[in-house]
Amino acid sequence: MKSIVETNNLSKSFRNQKALSNFSMNIHQGDVYGLVGKNGAGKTTLIKILFGLVHESSGNYSLFEVNSSEKKISDIRKQISGIIEQPAFYPHMNSFDNLKVQAYMSNLTNFNKIDEVLQIVSLRNVGRKKVKNFSLGMKQRLGIARALLTDSKLIVLDEPTNGLDPEGIIELRELIKFLNREKGITFLISSHYINELEQVINKIGIIGDGQMIEEIPLDSLKLKLKSCIALSTNSVDDCVKALKGKYADIKCKDELILINDIDIEVAEVIKYLSDCSVPISQINKKSMNLEEYVLSKISTKTS
Ligand SMILES: Nc1ncnc2c1ncn2[C@@H]1O[C@H](COP(=O)(O)OP(=O)(O)OP(=O)(O)O)[C@@H](O)[C@H]1O
Ligand SMILES: [Mg+2]
Question: What pTM was estimated for this model as a whole?
Answer without folding.
Answer: 0.86
